[in-house]
Amino acid sequence: MSRLNTNQLSLAYGNRNIVRELNLQVPDGLITALVGANGSGKSTILKSLARILAPAQGGVYLDGKLIHRLPTKEVAKQLAILPQNPSAPEGLTVRELVAFGRYPHQKGFGNLTSEDNRMIDWAIQATGMSAFGDRAVDHLSGGQRQRAWIAMALAQGTEVLLLDEPTTFLDMAHQMEVMNLLEKLNKEQKRTIIMVVHDLNHAARYAQHLVALKAGTVLYEGHPETVMTCDMLRDVFNIDADIIPDPRTGAPLCLPYGLVEDQESEASPSLVAANVQEPIERQRVQAMA
């Protein structure tokens, strides 16, 4: 089942085509990770799924309806997005930030209702930020700030969360802190989470569904154990790597050891996209088998 999907979606910035005829089904109740090299279209796709970027052709569908034709508040009640490197006004407290998540539900003068306050309290508690409710967001550590922003997204009360590189610029401990929180939200509350991830080992460990992109085209899609292969790493990232099972979780671990040096690595994105169109369906079937 998929509440959120695309149909022949093409995306562009001006005259520059980024994504072409994308057909993507986001599995409900799972963590989906979008992976790919820089410029592969990951963040662009996420923006379109969140109704931030309008399609050049095709469309994004939420519960069978074109998302770009739905009222903004209606969409905001069903999905929330956390962009890259969000910033809050100086001095804004965690509770004040989280309260912004209730905006889609407010009427009239926007006064907080008892339900709004209940959801704010719950979101702060769920993200482990109860001790920081009155603390200024700009006085928090990197991991704490990310948890505060995730709390704001949770306060929207949506079933779908979209996150663009949620661990960027965080140290290893804070990265695990954020990823463990997302895993908890997915397992305990069945939240559907779609996230752009640079760290392939994070993607394989925490996601149940991987989408590997190159030049705006899906090359591989499916469970991490079938997608995280040496062929995928060569085709998508132009690297040679060993894949071994994580000794603790069993998830595939990527150990890169070299770059693939061939003519394709020097090709333009448009030529790469043309070259991968023919085998895409075969690769997708293999990955999802």
UniProtKB/TrEMBL annotation:
The keyword Nucleotide-binding applies. It is a peripheral membrane protein. One of its GO terms (molecular function) is ATP binding. GO terms for biological process: iron ion transport. GO terms for cellular component: plasma membrane. Residues 4-240 form the ABC transporter domain. The keyword Acetylation does not apply. This is ABC transporter ATP-binding protein. Keywords: ATP-binding, Cell membrane, Ion transport, Iron, Iron transport, Membrane, Nucleotide-binding, Transport. It is found in: Cell membrane. It comes from the Bacteria. PANTHER family: IRON(3+)-HYDROXAMATE IMPORT ATP-BINDING PROTEIN FHUC.
